Amino acid sequence: MTTKDAARPAGASTALLTDHYELTGLDAALVSGVAHHRATFELFSRGLPDGRRYGVVAGIGRAVDAVLRFRFGPAELAYLEERGFLRPETLAYLADFRFSGDVTGYRDGEIYFPYSPLVTVDATFGEALVLETVLLSVLNHDAAVASAAARMASAAQAQGRATIEGGARRTHEEAGVAAALAGYIAGIDVTSNLEAARRYGIPSAGTTMHAFTLAHRSELDAFRAQVEAMGTDTTFLVDTYDIPSGIENAVAAAGAGIGAVRLDSGDVADEARKARKQLDALGATGCKIVVSGDLDEYRVEAMADAPVDRYMFGTRLVTGSGAPTAELVYKLVAVADDDGPDATMRAVAKTSAGKGHRGGRKTATRIIGADGYALEERLLIDGDEPEPLAEGQTERALQVPLIVAGEALAPFDARAAREHHALARAELRPGWLALEPGRPALNPNRPQEVAP
Question: What CATH code would you report for 20-130+327-433?
Answer without folding.
Answer: 3.20.140.10
